[in-house]
Amino acid sequence: MSIQTSATPLGRNDLAALVARDIAPGSFVNLGIGQPTLVSNYLTEEQNITLHTENGMLGMGPEAKGDEIDDDLINAGKIPVTELPGASYFHHADSFAIMRGGHLDICVLGAFQVSATGDLANWHTGAPGAIPAVGGAMDLATGAKDVFVMMTLLTRDGASKLVETCSYPLTGVGCVTRVYTDKAVFLIGPDGVQVRETFGLTFEELQALVPFPLVPFEEKAAGAVVGV
Amino acid sequence: MSIQTSATPLGRNDLAALVARDIAPGSFVNLGIGQPTLVSNYLTEEQNITLHTENGMLGMGPEAKGDEIDDDLINAGKIPVTELPGASYFHHADSFAIMRGGHLDICVLGAFQVSATGDLANWHTGAPGAIPAVGGAMDLATGAKDVFVMMTLLTRDGASKLVETCSYPLTGVGCVTRVYTDKAVFLIGPDGVQVRETFGLTFEELQALVPFPLVPFEEKAAGAVVGV
Amino acid sequence: MLQFIDTVGEAVAAVKDGSTVMIGGFGNAGQPFELIDALLDSGATDLTVVNNNAGQGDQGLALLIKEGRVRKMICSFPRQSDSWHFDAKFKAGEIELELVPQGNLAERIRAAGAGIGGFFTPTGYGTMLAEGKETRIIDGRGQVFETPIHADIALIKALKADGKGNLVYRKTARNFGPIMAAAAKHTIVQVSEIVPTGALDPENVVTPGIYVNSIVKVA
Amino acid sequence: MLQFIDTVGEAVAAVKDGSTVMIGGFGNAGQPFELIDALLDSGATDLTVVNNNAGQGDQGLALLIKEGRVRKMICSFPRQSDSWHFDAKFKAGEIELELVPQGNLAERIRAAGAGIGGFFTPTGYGTMLAEGKETRIIDGRGQVFETPIHADIALIKALKADGKGNLVYRKTARNFGPIMAAAAKHTIVQVSEIVPTGALDPENVVTPGIYVNSIVKVA
Q1: What CA–CA distance (Å, rounded) separates B89 from C28?
Q2: Assembly ipTM
Q3: CB pairs A-C closer than 8 Å
């Protein structure tokens, strides 16, 4: 197959760099807590990306260090951050109106599972006695124009997180458009799940890991860069 | 009857002064276009009333004159107005949230008809071919804590505008709490329409003009000053 | 992607025949007169226009209506002393009118920008403007179901824009601008001044640049 | 009527047993810690609390929960690494939880302040948080009916207030403050500074004084 682009699986940072490259210049983006936050390290000034944080800000800068730390300026993960020129602040309903009204070009989220039709499960294990917490995950999943997921393809037990139907409680239905994993990049669309590239394994080896039929990427289909 | 307070009917300015006196200190008030606008001339500094205009402002001052005129600062009637210290500006949805969310203590409106149960008709004659225009009337009628109406009691043809059931198209259902007219002040409540005072006629003479039974004011019922 | 455009004519080229166009302003305050004039010159027709009024005198929106370019008006207050062009078209049956209480107009525009599928409001309940609409009693009050108003284009006026498209307005000229910017797919703004990015205090930005597509400075 | 109050203790006297209390803040930013401490001292109990979280560490809301004063939490993100007091009460069945997606929480609070009887939103559709709720398909998207969250009291933190009760906030500490101020019958605000009426630019007021009942300056 010609779609393989790397001889080894991608590490978290390489994956973050790949996601960053795929974001169109001028896009408005929300990066979820955890692994997606790494993407910000690889966005270039030329890309002119504006980052949104759900707690009321556009134009969020890098994590604050030392004297920059201001208790009144944090991100959704409650980490102190900085403000870039051209930033703006707004209240929570206005902030979620940006998310829910379809104004964000891309959000990047972690996941427990993604289904073949783009269902997302990333907020609750459903384990008995577990205390659920949802935050803004459902709003992001439902509201952004494109929802990218970053995750390892397999659980620690070797099960695929890309599944025919999610067994974990859903965050959103049919919302995920791309899945970036250590082993491959998947594009989810009306024609099924396409494999755009694989890392350290062939399409056939990848297919053996995923419990539903995959489709090799066709050049005529959705390309790489997404956003504005 | 002891409720008569004036030997003659009240003129528009005297009526406006009466309404102004009945507004509690510290109230937030919206004055409708036309006759209700006169009320602002009789509000005192001690009352500390804040005026709202639906096109996005709290803390509206008197009409602008001469050099004060600013095309960007108008009221709902599109008249140039002024800004008082402590004013604030907001967009239309936020402005109507103030009205619709029940935050205005009082609005004062004109009317074609008011019914015995407080239905208001003040936006449309319903005449064939008439072009309707509603503006913010329905939002004010439905949203303010108290809706005061100012009008003459009788039409030019001598018909009572206080009616059992409105024949004109409604603005709001059961929303009017008080009616200030040249001939009497009426309080509308669950126990019917009380006459608080009459101007230039007796209760019996007033009753003869109004096509449903009126109730003389009882001291134990709602008093004069309304608002915060 | 945000664009700074030299002329109002180029800016309104985004308006196509059949477009739904929101136009900001209440009275003259906040009316983007230059953009409306450019829209008149552009020839775009069969428009649905969302504005509080339906044109006044012989300028702006009134001329668009006079020239037969507006198929439908969605507004709260069409009839005014000087709305003669609308009045004539309406009486001739040549323009459609959707009359909306002003607060429902504002909230429906806001709903479109905020991704709300519809909402219940007491405004209009029991009146002829609720006829044919779904109603229900909520907490003892009759309420009417209202749906969002989306638009292809918004034409609005602001005071200043920075390099990111962030906007501030002036006094009661703010009115419909912020909610229309959020409700339209493509928002075109005329401003009096373009300031460097960083010159607007982030606390005081009223419309964040995410809602803005095209900015044109009008002298 | 707006009141300027000397102490947080007097300010929170308005909170009664059984009250629904909205508390501003996201993380520590915008948390009215002094008002919450005063509420703890006041002894008010059987409270329903609306906040994004359910207390962190051994301070503020976490202590109210620990002391058994909160009957029910309405929040989006109760479980955190340091939410041990909530976790213990929840596992013991001693506190009720209404878990709400954060955007629905914000929009439901906003709806209460804006007089909206309820609204449809795609958020949560097809998930367990929509179970038992009314749904409908609007423009091809599944949507869930959500109702306003009203409160008796809001406790919020702002940066400055003027003599009319107008408020401005600071950076991401703004968060839930403006919408909670509008949604509660009685809004209590702690501020860092009280400035003379006229000192705040009317263009930059975030919460107009109409939404504010009590202001207390906290050093």
Answers
A1: 17
A2: 0.97
A3: 61
